[in-house]
Amino acid sequence: MCWLCDFKTSPLDTPETTHRWQARRGFLLTAGAMVATGALAQVDVGAASGIRKLVPAESLENDARQQYNQVLADARAKNALAPDGHPQLLRLHAIAKRLIPHTTAWNPRARDWRWQVNLIGSKQLNAWCMPGGKIAFYTGILDQLQLDDDEVAMIMGHEMAHALREHAREQASKNMATQGLSRIGGAVAASVFGIDPRVTDLIARGGANLLSLKFSRDDETEADLVGLEIAARGGYRPEASVELWKKMLAANGNGGASWLSTHPSGTNRIHQLEANLPKVQHLYEQARQDR
């Protein structure tokens, strides 16, 4: 799962789905004043359609909760899970508190999510958000890139956007359609096919690893723009999105971020974000006034 992603187009992408995203992307990039007044949030993200129906949202969120708890347990066993009161963890919680209120417009299910944010001690430059709002940051991305709060908010908003836009659900459904039961978790198999969960327990342990799902370039573009708006509404500087990616490019140039090669061109990403900064600027200014 992102922050470590692969962006190859899925073999199941169809002209219809491609056209639908191109139209939506065009809306995101050209809406101008409509974006600034919140029209972006009117895009329907709550209803499952097409291939997503193969994996019920409830089942995927349940699998995510189980896998998230396992990740935390593994980190705890290695003394790598930040304890309550850790300064960096408190910082992440404070940022999340400002972003979460702006998530439900993008997905009505988020209203009932039990959001969690944890910090894992690791040199990895990584962060992710599982379906259902299960977030993890690794100390490597905070420390090695020396991120300020605005830049952290851009990463967090981006990862939240993946969950809100149900990118993992779509990719898991595609995996199911192309690779069968061996690639999905037991809870999902039980829900979709009526299989006894006890029979699929082995599949659940080695199946749909939500941390290994690959997002498409379109998913990443969408997450960039949705995350930018969420962070701006939370009162974080939109320009930080550009500053963040400049840091990433610099880290990659120093050989310290090989994971960046799996993302779309950092230069193109920066240009796209720069083009959208004016559309969210007054959301940021209003948020600052409200605070």
Tags for this entry?
metalloendopeptidase activity; about 290 residues; metal-binding; mainly alpha; 12 helices
Which secondary structure elements does this structure contain, and how are they paired or packed?
Layout lengths: L14 H16 L2 H4 L20 H21 L9 H13 L16 E5 L6 E4 L3 E5 H6 L4 H16 L2 H13 L6 H8 L7 H6 L10 H17 L6 H14 L12 H25 L1
Parallel strand pairs: 1-3
Antiparallel strand pairs: 2-3
Q: What quaternary form is this?
A: single chain
The count of DSSP E runs of length 2 or more, i.e. the number of strands, is 3
**Sheet having the most strands:** 3 strands, mixed
Strand order of the largest sheet: 1-3-2
Report the portion of residues in β strands.
under 5%
Average pLDDT number = 75
The helix/strand series, from N terminus to C terminus, equals HHHHEEEHHHHHHHH
Shape, principal axes of CA atoms: globular
Contiguous runs where pLDDT drops below 50 for at least 5 residues: 4-37, 39-49, 187-207, 254-262
User: What is the number of helices?
Assistant: 12
What structural category arises from helix and sheet content? mainly alpha
Specify the helix fraction band: 40-55%
Radius of gyration from CA coordinates: 18 Å
Query: How many individual domains?
Result: 1
> What is the straight-line distance between the termini?
33 Å
